[in-house]
From TrEMBL:
Domain spans labelled SMODS-associated and fused to various effectors: 190-365
NCBIfam families in the cross-refs: SAVED (NF033611)
Natural source organism: Microbacterium salsuginis
Source domain of life: Bacteria
Name of the featured protein: SAVED domain-containing protein
Length: 367
């Protein structure tokens, strides 16, 4: 049975296609260094990866439930909390796809090369950049790998050292982001992977600078499963529900409009500057407000669609609007998407605010 698993996979890891024969040798023969792993764990114990399946113990030992992995992939899929990402369905699909490729003869060029953008700014005094290990795990999960001969060849790193309470941090951040991404636009890489952890205004600006003609993959940041903290989740299966509502002050001649976006937390409009409180308002909310409202790529797509509806509502209800005052409590991916999906040459300028302990303060403008 073990030999069958190796033959089905052609001696390659079914997740990353690493060749698993010849990594070591004695005087007489090569030593294989792959590992035959269970998709659904061999037992039904609490610590057995994906062990809650309805498969019987005998079915778990069949070749259909076994897959050939390299040591690194085996460690990742069996890590604590990994079942939220490396689900039974995900692993079964990759095993099936890999073995289908083997049957269609030796075409393993299925991993897409990508440029990597890492942007880090201080949040409450702390820098929390994505680590090499976290970036590697997230790219691996999406069938991506860093472009170039060396991982650093296509990496664009921005570190914004000023604290988010320093008034000059916004100017510093915008200059650094714009300068670094200018080089990216001239690069030959059609796919760009983005790992960003910074205050919301800088993330919105980052999104506005990303080329909408490229294949942009923005990665989330979760607090659990440290090595897998930047990996998209596969659950829940139903995308989050977002709603857009126009405000009660329908002054069609208004040149300034507030848009509040409450996703990771409610936006308290009473903390906005006094001169904004009487402005017309459009609200975007999610059905279940909280830090885990966006967990999957389908959730992010649903948010992006709702954000575009909010911008369209401003344009249709307030045709004279020149400035949208954005008060947002959103995860990092939603902040970047807000900048990406704002058409700065055609839509009103975005005035983006930062929440302080006391109130919302204007940080920067986009468009």
């Amino acid at each position: 049975m073990i030999r069958e698993i190796w033959v089905r996979a052609a001696g390659r890891c079914v997740l990353c296609s690493a060749y698993l024969v010849g990594g070591g040798r004695t005087f007489f023969h090569h030593i294989p260094h792959g590992q035959v792993a269970h998709n659904v764990g061999a037992t039904q114990g609490r610590k057995s990866p994906r062990g809650k399946s309805t498969l019987t113990l005998d079915e778990r030992a069949l070749p259909e439930n076994l897959l050939l992995l390299c040591h690194q992939c085996h460690r990742m899929v069996d890590d604590v909390g990994a079942e939220k990402i490396y689900t039974e369905e995900y692993l079964a699909r990759h095993k099936r796809d890999h073995e289908d490729r083997v049957r269609k003869v030796t075409n393993f060029a299925t991993v897409t090369q990508t440029a990597v953008v890492r942007v880090t700014g201080r949040i409450r005094g702390t820098l929390s950049p994505a680590t090499d290990r976290q970036v590697g795990a997230a790219l691996h999960y999406e069938d991506l790998r860093p472009a170039g001969e060396h991982p650093r060849d296509a990496e664009y790193i921005v570190s914004i050292d000023s604290d988010d309470t320093d008034p000059w941090v916004w100017e510093e951040g915008m200059k650094k982001i714009a300068a670094k991404l200018a080089g990216l636009r001239d690069s030959p890489y059609p796919t760009v992977a983005v790992f960003a952890m910074a205050p919301i205004p800088l993330l919105v600006f980052l999104g506005s600078q990303l080329d909408d003609k490229a294949d942009i993959r923005v990665f989330p940041r979760f607090r659990d499963a440290e090595d897998l903290a930047w990996c998209w989740r596969n659950e829940p299966l139903t995308p989050a529900t977002f709603e857009v509502s126009p405000g009660s002050n329908a002054d069609a001649q208004a040149q300034d409009v507030i848009v509040t976006v409450s996703v990771s937390a409610p936006v308290d409009v009473s903390r906005a500057p006094a001169d904004l409180l009487d402005l017309p308002r459009v609200t975007l909310t999610v059905e279940n407000i909280g830090p885990d409202s966006i967990q999957t790529k389908a959730d992010l797509a649903a948010f992006a669609s709702a954000w575009r509806r909010a911008l369209a509502t401003v344009e249709s209800d307030y045709p004279n609007c020149e400035r949208i005052h954005l008060l947002a409590a959103v995860p990092v991916v939603a902040a970047v998407a807000s900048g990406q999906h704002h058409m700065r040459d055609a839509q009103p300028q975005l005035v983006v605010y930062q929440r302080t302990a006391e109130q919302y303060m204007e940080a920067l403008r986009v468009g």
